[in-house]
Amino acid sequence: MPASRRRLRIAAAATVLVAAASGCAQRHTESDEQPAYTGPADQVITVVSAAPTDTTATLTAWDRVGAHWVRAIGPLRADVGAQGIGAASESATRSPAGIWPLTEAFGIAADNGTRLPYRRVTTSDWWVSDTGSRYYNTHYRCAPGSCPFDESAGEDLGAAGPAYDHAVVIDYNRSPVVPAAGSAYFLHVGDGHPTAGCVAVPASDLDALMRWLDPARGPVIDITVR
Asked: Is residue 108 one of the residues assigned to a domain?
């Protein structure tokens, strides 16, 4: 998550404690029911919250078998954005509502057996959140202090700690990339707290999900409010 959204996460999380994107054509469903998704993917991860401002959701992984969906993993508890689920942007801490492809993975730790293309990252691997950069919302490799974008508005993936031991890229705002519409959304290791817009689950659950994901089946993540 970029530094600006880290600050927003802290503020939004504090509000939560005190109080105690569209772009998809298909509709959604509660996690303990058959997904209503009708697109071409044969694997779907549903992430469903009960209210737009909820910071937790129910995550379930589904396989298409014939004309039906069969639960493969879950339901699991997932952490979502500190401002809930809805319209995402660089200035918000919401998880992006919609259906997004899952096409690649990365991590500080060694490959955990995922079939997705996997990049092992170091402190020279960045996700660019500089809205004025032509590399916005892409991976870029450069040594700290030498990058052709504002590093303070980016995320050094290798320096992020356990959250990025393993992660799957959520392909929100990637094709086409719209400046300031939001960047660096991942399915990553959670610590039980709201995120800056990512979806997070415990490490063991993420390992199981990543091993289940099969790029030949066109997996997507469906993030919604019921």
From this structure: yes
